[in-house]
Amino acid sequence: MSADDSGAVLETYLNIAFSFSQGVVQIWGAEAASGRLMRALNGFHALGQPGLEGPAAAVLQHLARIPYNSMESLVYVTNVSHLVYATTLFDTFLSETTQFLFLLLPQAMGENQPVPLRALIDAASKNEAIAQAASARTREIGHLTFAERIQVLRETFGLDITLSTETADGLAHVASVRDGAANDQGTFPLRLDDRGNVVPRKNVTRKVSRQNAARQHTTKIGGDNVRRAIDSYEQAARAVARAVFTQVLKQSDHPAVQLVLKGSTARLELNAS
User: How far is CA 31 from CA 25, 131, 238, in A?
Assistant: First the structure.
């Protein structure tokens, strides 16, 4: 591979890594902004809604109209949204890294990697057929858990990806919380009674309100869960990127690589808030 080719390949993976880093900056910024907003709202109500007679009354009246239960809902939905966004960032990073490596090292897909005949017929070139096979293999791996996908990177490409115990435990914890958030948003758990009628389960009475039922059965997601998720994803992504830059691309000393591996400082804004 020529120097120009090596530079182009490095630039491609730098773009993948920087894209994830920019997303992390956004999510830490959103965490800081939402935290400040909720503290301001709580403080405004705790102090008896001061300033409603002053020059800022027109603005503060909007805050005064926000009931406490709406604030509680805002916190919950914000936490779920941030968790989903952070998870999507890491999911995309792992998929793009996996596809990048398959395209760079197509032999890693194995001799038995099936390629549909239609893909071979429709492909304009050998490279396009390889790209289609890499995309299909990446989608297949994408159905695994994050921990399993990282293990695939280790075994398939021989990468030495080292995760701290805290990061590995964090990924497992986040997976549990994320699955709960995605699958436990129903209002009523249902069953069939002895006559075959669809009814709520016995521990949910007919008179219970939808709001209370949702609160009873919805997975609890706090700000600590979200921040642990972001931190775990960031640490894991950095470990993966470090392995690719140093072991595959042999570019650990490149200034841009050093910048990526240094990690985001966006969380400082959250800590300062």
Answer: 10, 37, 20
Q: What is the DSSP letter of 192?
A: E
Structure tokens at 265: 């400082």
Instruction: List pLDDT tens digits, range 44-66.
Output: 888 888 888 888 888 888 888 88
Nearest partner of 9 among 146, 101, 129, judged by Cα: 101
> What's the pTM?
0.80
What are the boundaries of each domain within the chain? 3-184+219-272, 186-218
- To 10 degrees, the CA torsion angle through 181, 167, 269, 67? 20
Distance CA 199, CA 193 (A): 7
Name the token pair of 202. 């016995």
* CA dihedral sign, ordered 109, 111, 116, 121: positive
| Residue found under tokens 């395209």 | 103
**Rounded CA gap, 140 and 142, in Å?**
5
What does each C-alpha distance from 265 to 44, 231, 271 come to in angstroms? 30, 11, 10
Give helix then strand counts, H and E, for the chain: 11, 2
